[in-house]
Amino acid sequence: MSIWKRMLRMINIDGSGSCHGPTAGPRDDGLKKIVIVGTPNVGKSVIFNRLTGAYVTVSNYPGTTVDVARGKAKIGGERVEIVDTPGMYSLLPITEEERVGRLLLFKEEPATVLHVVDARNLDRMLPFTIQLIEAGYPLVLDLNMMDEMEVAGIQVDVAKLEKELGIPVVATVATTGRGLDELKRRLSEYVVRRQCTAAV
Predict the structure, then answer these.
(1) Whole-structure pTM over 0.90, yes or no?
(2) What is the mean pLDDT of the chain?
């Protein structure tokens, strides 16, 4: 068992009975949920806006002054709820924003987690990806800011990274919409229509 699994069990947030660790499935409104996570300034909110359009509400997380954006989207013909979490660097929170982000992950019952990262700084971003994988979340990794990565002369083999991590990996430029159709397609295939095939 990974250190993250043990941590979740110790703080009594490990969702037993789910095929993906923390409980995955629809909320009381019947909509499955996609929770977007990532560090600040990686384009999370732009991805969120691209997915949800005008169907957005922003409110404080209960008991805090931290804003959380929620919206509806149609992915693969099915309506889902999208949640944009505050910026966070790991599952071990330091700031109030990170604490709220972790609570959203643990309590909001995501059908999947979309981890948005800055493609130029994968060495700093991937440790959080590994934490999320080890914690048992069904995960899609979005390498955002690909245009800036290319300008910097950095190359990433997306297919190889996907194979090594064992999760879907998509390359996007959120500001222009590049890669968004592919992101929606992968979310549809991996998240919305995915059936549990094995216990974690």
Answers:
(1) no
(2) 83
